[in-house]
Specification:
Order of helices and strands: EHEHHEHHEEEHEHHHHEEHEE
Helix content: 40-55%
Shape: elongated
Number of helices: 11
Strand order of the largest sheet: 1-7-2-6
Strand content: 15-25%
Length: 324
């Protein structure tokens, strides 16, 4: 529908609050559920395999750059190789010499490790040359421990469940760095496993009716939404639609109210070449509505009882005791 707007909420409770606000203002809306589907290409390999594989690719990457033209920062494969090396060193530090039942790390160490990762990201964002002093391996470490069924969580921390001879043999799953066949083939010596993971995530959506544009002259809905947990892209689109359509509908209601009653053909002509103020000699705005769009808007407003009468004699409905 032309006059139907939708907003994606990250909180069902806040979706209910905005619906209540709409009802209090004399508008209406409904809550529906949609879904977003997406896929992700993943690759699983041993830590040692990743290091060797990405070392090969990093060498090729550096050789393809003309002398002196390469970036100051390492390329994608060199970055991933260096990360895998840091992960491998951390695994050796945690696991070498440990026996089943030994404490591998505490909850506090894991928490501090996550904070260190956040510190590294912030330091890199600020071009801090000391960003390498931050440990960025802990998220990977906890994933590897869980996926390889290595530790048992206890109140004291995480205890080793089985002895590990070579931490480099542990498997790790990451997003594939490329979907190209050449990338897959380049790692064949290291026995990677490629997989596609499919996801369907629910969305809580509030859908509004045409009365929205006439019930809130002080933009209290917009003020509320700016403080709520709403999908940002969804809000930006809603705001643009709301402001633009409200101006168009105000103009249409002004034309109908001035005429008292008007035929659909006359209204189409008015909205095809509308300007405010008339003549275009002062600052203002203009509207150029497609005839089919005007007809669709009128029919939606008639259904909402904002307009009344047949197409040959359109009038403001009882819901429009005064112009918005």
């Amino acid at each position: 529908m032309i006059l139907e707007e939708s907003l994606i909420f990250n909180s069902e409770e806040e979706a209910d609050l905005i619906l209540k606000h709409l009802r209090d203002l004399g508008a209406a809306g409904k809550k529906i559920y949609r879904s977003t589907a997406f896929s992700e290409e993943l690759v699983t390999c041993s830590i040692g395999g990743f290091i060797a594989w990405f070392s090969d690719l990093a060498m090729e990457e550096s050789n393809t750059d003309p002398e002196g033209s390469g970036p100051a920062l390492p390329g994608t494969y060199a970055f991933q190789r260096d990360l895998m090396i840091r992960i491998s060193k951390k695994l050796h530090l945690l696991l070498d010499g440990k026996k089943p039942g030994d404490l591998i790390y505490t909850h506090e160490e894991a928490r501090q490790g996550l904070l260190s990762l956040l510190g590294r990201v912030q330091a890199m964002h600020n071009d801090d040359s000391d960003h390498d002093t931050y440990d960025d391996t802990w998220v990977s470490i906890t994933i590897i421990m869980k996926d390889n069924d290595l530790v048992e969580e206890t109140p004291d921390g995480f205890l080793l469940k089985r002895e590990i001879g070579d931490p480099g043999s542990l498997l790790y799953e990451i997003r594939s760095l490329s979907e190209e066949i050449a990338f897959r083939e380049s790692g064949s010596a290291y026995n990677p496993v490629f997989s596609t993971h499919y996801y369907i995530e629910p969305e809580c959506v509030v859908v509004t009716d045409p009365r929205l544009y006439f019930c809130d002259p002080h933009d209290s809905i917009i003020d509320d939404l700016e403080e709520m947990d709403v999908d940002l892209d969804s809000f930006d689109q809603f705001y643009e639609n709301y402001q633009t359509k409200r101006n168009v509908l105000n103009a249409m209601v002004e034309v109908i109210g001035r005429a008292g009653s008007i035929s659909i053909d006359e209204l189409i002509r008015e909205m095809k070449d509308y300007s405010h103020p008339p003549g275009g000699e002062e600052d203002g705005f203009s509207i150029d509505l497609d005839p089919q769009v005007t007809q669709m808007i009128v029919h939606e407003l008639q259904k909402a009882k904002i307009l009344t009468g047949p197409d040959r004699r359109i009038r403001l409905g009882k819901a429009m005791g005064q112009k918005p």
